[in-house]
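README: folding subset

This subset contains proteins for which both the sequence and a predicted structure token string are available. Records are stored as plain text. Below is the entry for ATP-binding cassette domain-containing protein (242 residues), shown exactly as it appears on disk.
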Amino acid sequence: MDNLLSIQHLSKSFTLHNLNQHISAVEDISLHLREGEFVGITGKSGSGKSTVLRCIYRTYLPQSGNIWYNSKQFGLIDLAAASERTVIDLRKFEIGYVSQFLNVMPRTTARELVREAIVEMGHDADFAEAETVKMLEHFELDRSLWNSYPATFSGGEKLRLNIARAMVKHPRLLLLDEPTASLDHGSKLKVKQLIEQLMKEGTTMLGIFHDLEFMDHLCNREYQIRDGKFYTAQKQKNLTTS
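--- output ---
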């Protein structure tokens, strides 16, 4: 099985100019994801987990290291050095990202957010509308909210919408940054069902979770991060954590 993603010696730091401090977020990180795998990252808050995902998605530009991604569109490409135009294309067609927070254009309804994600993949309006309805119903988002602006939603409703918008595109690589952080048990099960469906379709996933019970029986392998460095726990599928 070929690697879809291979991170080699990745480091990222930040300069706090107002405090005249330089902070190392992650240091000399290496990991790989084979096609179709679901790999989990665990660690305390502030340990650098989200920084790794944001470097892959290119929200952050790393200081050093390589992020090799085997793109369907571009072939093997280093995300750490790719152009902004290439990164935008990859986000549109291949790489999805689910964060704890929903950042959207104002005056865009929940229905429009999900529908536009499908349309930009090249699908027609009828297909996009049908898939939008299916996804919003799956996450049990109240129909009265579909044509409302997400700014009025609760934290859990925003998170469910964020997940729906990313998963409806069926990306080749899906990055999950605490996707169940503010969800109730029933909503977590809805997320788990879609993750399992995407895994059957061949989507490769890298996910951050504090809820280790949620990861059980999902992850192929686990990486633990402490003080910005990785420690591998080579656990096969049916991962259990003590």
